[in-house]
Amino acid sequence: MQKDTDSAVIQEKLKELYHLIHQCQEERNRSEHNLTNIAKTHERMQHEQKLSPYYKTKLRGLYNTAMQDAECEAELLRKALDVIAEVRTIRNERRLAAKKSERPKETIRRGALMKMLQQNALTLPLWIPKDDEKPPPLCGAVPAEPNYVAKAGDMVASLVKGPDGDENWILAEVITYNHNTNKYEIDDIDEEQKERHVLSRRRVVPLPLMRANPETNPDALFPKGALVMALYPQTTCFYRAVIHEIPEAVKEDYQVLFEDSSYTEGYSPPLSVAQRYVISCKESRKK
Amino acid sequence: MKGKGKGKDSTDSKECPLQFPDFTPTEHTRVCPRFTAVLQRTEEIGVGLEDIDALQLEIETLLVSVTKRQKQLDQEMKVLISWQEKKTPGKLQPESTGKRSRPDEGKPTKRFKDASGKAHPLTGGGRPKKNFQSQAKFQEYEFSDSPVELSRLPKNDAPNRFWASIEPYCAEVTQDNIKVLEDLIKTHEEDAEYYKIPTLGKHYSLKWAQEDMVEEQKEGAKTNDKRRGLSNNSSLNSTDAEKILKKVDKEYESDDTSPFGALTQRLVSCLIEENLMASLEDSMVDTDSKDNIDDSSSPNPGKGGFIRSLNIGNTTQLEKRIRQELKEQGILELDDVTTENPEDEVLAELRKCQAELKSVTTQNILHAKHLLHQAKEEMKKQELRKKLLIIDTEVMEVYKKMASARQKKKIPTKKEKDQAWKVLKERENVLKQLDS
C-alpha cells in the first residue's frame, strides 16, 4: 500500500518536474532576447568608443530586465532541483522502510555497490549560493555544527571496531539516533558484513550533504595539502590522506594521496575521491 | 564631433570602468542533452526516474550559469551607477539621465525599457553635440546647488597618492637607468682586492711586545735625558732592549708549538720515521737520532732547547725554501702550494667571508645583467611604441582627410590612397616588430 502511494507521489513529482523544465526553458527563451540585446548594445558601445548617457541609461534598463529574468530563471531551476531532491528522499525513505521490514534483502554485488556510491557522490546536490551567502554546514569541507545530529538514512563515516580488534573508519548509514544515550545505530554500507553497530556520536562523522562549487566557493573546499580522511577507491573504508589537488570544476573530484607505508614515499600515488567522501581528519588516532 | 567634444570622449572611453561581460546564455542543446530531450517529449511520456540523475546535473549547470550571470549583472550595475554618479563637476559631463534615474533604482524596469526603447527625451542618441553641451552646463549648475552634491565634494586624493607612488615602477626605462645598471656591474670588476690574502705577518704577541719595548725605551730615554743629560746611556739602553727582545723571541720559540712550518715538520718526521723503521739495531747504534726522536716526540722542557740547539734562524724562511725546492723537484703540486695551515682561524674566516662575498656578487651581477638585458629590450620596445604613436596620428590624419573628402562627395585621389596604404602598412610593420 505504502509503496503504491509512494510511487503515485513520485509520479506526481515527476510530472511537476516536467512542467517546471518547460517553464524554465520558456523563461530562458524569454531572457535570451534581452541578453542578445545586451550583447548587441555592448558591441555598439565598444565600437563607438564613446559612451553617451543614452547608452548608459539603456544599458541600465537592459541590465535590470536581465537581472529580473535571471532571478525568475534561477527560481524555477531551484524549484526543479527541489523536486528532484524530494523524489530522492522519497525513494530513500522507501528503501529504508524496506530494509527495516524484511532485513535479509538481496545483497548488492560489490561492483554494483561501488557504482552506486559513485553515483550517490555525483548526484549529491550542488550548493549554489543566492547573492553572497556563506556555504552552510556540511557543504563541501564545512563541518557540521557541534550539536548536529545526522538523520536516518544519512551517510556517515564511523569508527568501528572490527572482529579482530582493530578499528576502522567505515562508510555507514544512520538507522537511528538515541537522544538519551547520545548514540547512533548505524549500518555498515557494505552489506556483506551484516551487523549493526551502536556507536557514540564521537565515533560518527556525517558526510557532506552538498557539494561545493569550486568556481564560486573555493573556500568551502579542503585546501591543498590538508590532512583529511577519504574513502579509498573501491573500498568502503576511510583512510588518512593528504589533498593533492582540489577539484577545479563542479564534476571533478579531489586528488588525494593516501598514507600508505607500502610506498617508499609513504604515500600512494594520487587517487581521485569525490567531494562527498572526503572529511576532515579526526586527530584522535587509535592509540 | 570635433575639437573639444572629441577630446573629452576619448578620455571618457579610457575611463570606462565597464567590463562588457559576455552574457550569452548557456546553450542548453549542447551542454544539457537530457534537458533538451525532456523538452521535446510529450506530457504523457514526461520524466522518468532514470532521468533525474542526469537532469539534476544539467539543471545545476544551468543554475550555476544563471547565478554567475546575476552576479556579473549586479556588479556591472553597481559600476554603472557609481560611474554615473561620480562625474566631477569640472568635467562638463551631462549627468542628467544618470541622476534622474537614480531614484528609480528600486522600481520595476519598465520605465527603463521605455527609456531605452523610445530614446529618452533628454538624451537622444543622434542629437547634435552643441545642444548637448549647453544642456549639460545647465544641468551642472543645477547640481552644484544641490546639497547632495556638496556633501559628496570632500575630495579624496588617496587615488592620486597611490598612483604617484606607483609611477616610478611604471615609468619608461631611460638611458640613465641603463647607465646605473652598467655602473653597478662595473663596480664588481674592482672586487679583486677583496680576494687577496695578505702574507702572514708577525704574531700579534710578538708585535705588541716589540711595540711595548720601543715605547718604554723612549720613555726611559726621556727620563734619563732629563735626569742625567747623558746621551751614552740611551745607546746602551737600546742594546739592552734588543737583548730583551731576543730573549722574548727565544721564549716564544721555546713554546710548546714547533716554530717550524708544516712542510718542514713533515719532511723531517718522514726522515726520522724511516730511520726508525730501518732496523732496531741501527737505532740502538745511532743514539743521536734516537735522542732526536725522544726530544721531538715528548713535550719535555728539553724540546725548546733542542730546537734552539739546531740553530736555524728563520723558520719561515726555511719553510719557504723547502716549498720552493719541493716545487722545483716536482714533488709538490701547484694546488698544494696553496694549502695553508689548517689551524689558522683568521685565514679560515677570511676564506669563508670571501666565499660569501663571491656568491653574493655573482648573484648580484647575474641579476644586474638580467635587468640590463630587459631594460635594453624595453628601450627598443619603447622606441617602437613611440613610432607607433606617430604613425597612429598619421593614420588618423589621413583618415580625417578621406572622411572630409567623402563628405564633400569627392573621390580620393590615387595619391591620397597610396599615402593611406603606405601609412597603414607602416603601422602593421611596427606592430609586427612589437609582437616579435
TrEMBL record, chain A:
InterPro entries xrefs: SGF29, SGF29_tudor-like_dom, Tudor_SGF29_rpt1, Tudor_SGF29_rpt2
Entry keyword Phosphoprotein: no
Location in the cell: Nucleus
All copies of domain SGF29 C-terminal, residue ranges: 146-287
CDD domains: Tudor_SGF29_rpt1, Tudor_SGF29_rpt2
UniProt keyword Transcription regulation, yes or no: yes
Pfam families: SGF29_Tudor
UniProt entry keywords in alphabetical sequence: Nucleus, Transcription, Transcription regulation
PANTHER family named among the record's database cross-references: SAGA-ASSOCIATED FACTOR 29 (PTHR21539:SF0)
Name of the protein this chain belongs to: SAGA-associated factor 29-like
Organism of provenance: Limulus polyphemus
Protein encoded by which gene: LOC106466505
Automatic annotation (TrEMBL), chain B:
Subcellular location: Nucleus
Compositionally biased spans, kind Basic and acidic residues: 1-15, 97-117, 215-228
Keyword set includes Endoplasmic reticulum: no
Region Disordered, annotated ranges: 1-25, 84-131, 215-238, 284-310
Transmembrane segments: none
Organism domain of life: Eukaryota
Presence of keyword Nucleus: yes
Keyword list, A-Z: Coiled coil, Nucleus, Transcription, Transcription regulation
Main subcellular location of this protein, as a coarse class: nucleus
Pfam families, A to Z: Ada3
Signal peptide: none
Coiled-coil features, chain-numbered ranges: 365-392
InterPro entries: Histone_AcTrfase_su3
Family: Belongs to the NGG1 family.
Protein's recorded name: Transcriptional adapter 3-like
UniProt source species: Limulus polyphemus
Upper taxonomic lineage: Eukaryota, Metazoa, Ecdysozoa, Arthropoda, Chelicerata
